[in-house]
Specification:
With 541 residues, this protein is α/β, with parallel strands linked by helices. It contains 15 helices and 23 strands. The structure holds calcium ion (3 copies).
Length: 541
Amino acid sequence: MQRVRSLLIALLFGCAANQPPKSQPAAPARTPPSALKTWANGAVFYEVFVRSFQDSDGDGNGDLQGLISRLDYLNDGDASTTQDLGVDALWLMPVFASPSYHGYDVTDYEKINPDYGTGADFDRLITEAHRRGIKIVIDLVVNHTSVEHPWFRESASSPSSARRDWYVWSSTDLRWPQPWNPNGQTWHPRKGAYYYGLFSSRMPDLNFHTPAVREEVKRIAALWLRRGVDGFRLDGARHLFEDGPGDGQSDRPETHAFWKEFAAWVRSVKPDAALIGENWTETPAIAAYYGDTSRVPGGDELPLNFDFPLAKCIIEGVRAGDATGIGAKLAEMKRTYPPGATDVPFLTNHDQRRVASELNDHPGRLRSAAAVLLSLPGTPFLYYGEEIGLDNGPETGDEDKRTPMPWNSSPRAGFTTGQPWHELAPRHETVNVAAQTGDPDSLLSRYRKLIAARHVSAALSHGGLDVLRGEGPVLAFLRQEGSERVLVAHNLGDEQQTAALAVDAARAEPLFADEGTSFDFSGGTARLLLPPHSSALLRLR
Ligand SMILES: [Ca+2]
Ligand SMILES: [Ca+2]
Ligand SMILES: [Ca+2]
């Protein structure tokens, strides 16, 4: 996704919960939750920009061989070692051939980007990741192709081209603005006609009304699933179909219908494949992308969807030291998402200013953000570098959200022996993996411990959530799965807090507890003492 879009969407959707109707009728009896029961439910994902992770050959571009060499950092596959981060799955930003540095405009869906390596390198990555128990999900960008894709060249060559209807053409300029930018145009001139390109003139939209396009997308998906990938992150998923300006450019009924068709196809090829939708909008519209959870466990449309509104609430709440917005958003999700839907919480991704910069590198706030993220239900995603508090680059462009990973304090940070494709983020001399490895108080160690706590607890990794306190500086909730209950409490503020919560338990076993936290259970009340920016994850007995 491109910069103007991400900036404007971020402005459009702040942390505000959509309120329930004023006179809300009694909730109808819900069908029993039908949760997603695959590896993806509860897995901890890690988003990787391959170009920025590790260069293996000194050309300054990260590549697949480099990523393979860093897999042990992410998860070495050995449960007896605890220095690895412990993530369960990777989301690779686009790895297909593309003329751009980011890869979101594909020219060949069957070819690995030569900057990243060969098809054989990709196969080796899959093998090496799977050997460590790491799943690999790749970005599938099919709303549009590159303007340089041979399909578009053929389509644009003549109105009578055999592929004319693979793209969206008009004989006149319909002048639909971009939904997020009144000055952005979506119809672009070519040889006396106009093609639709929602994101840019470099990215012509495929025409999903054309059956051959739908079949080709399904064929490509099957090809990569059979080659070993474990699922897809679906770029711009709400924009497949368009039938008019404004609301007609997103969330069309035909878009929902296609994703159901696509999901059924993917299940037929690889039943446990993960599908994660990028539907950057408000909570009720995101909720609709799960489809029917009573028909297929987790939903018959997209079983995982990024939670952009909650991400905004977490960052604003942690920054302000106030849990109110997070509590209200969690309550809204509970009444809006279909039963059994798996949320996908995250802090920021490659389209957003990095969380460390959003929180002004405040160590306590970064600690709180990590703890909130990794104690929430669903399938949390980390963005590479987040675990060490990597700053945004100094500029506001997308490249500055995607700078090379700093591995050590050397001048090129251990990322490359050559000239990095983009300058390193500020403070990389001190904010790097080596500096934080082995330090029990580092942010990196915190991420490791929180991920480890999640892995030993079914309630944390798969359970539901009931908010106990979501106002003022304290965010507290109960996570439950079967007979296991975990009380989660975060103090987002700069002052010590005490909290008395109605919790029926005799005692508690900490799965994770910051220094200085203490707790006491008696008479149906949990009494917690929480130092500034501390968290406690307590298994109740
Ligand atoms: Ca390279
Ligand atoms: Ca390990
Ligand atoms: Ca489209």
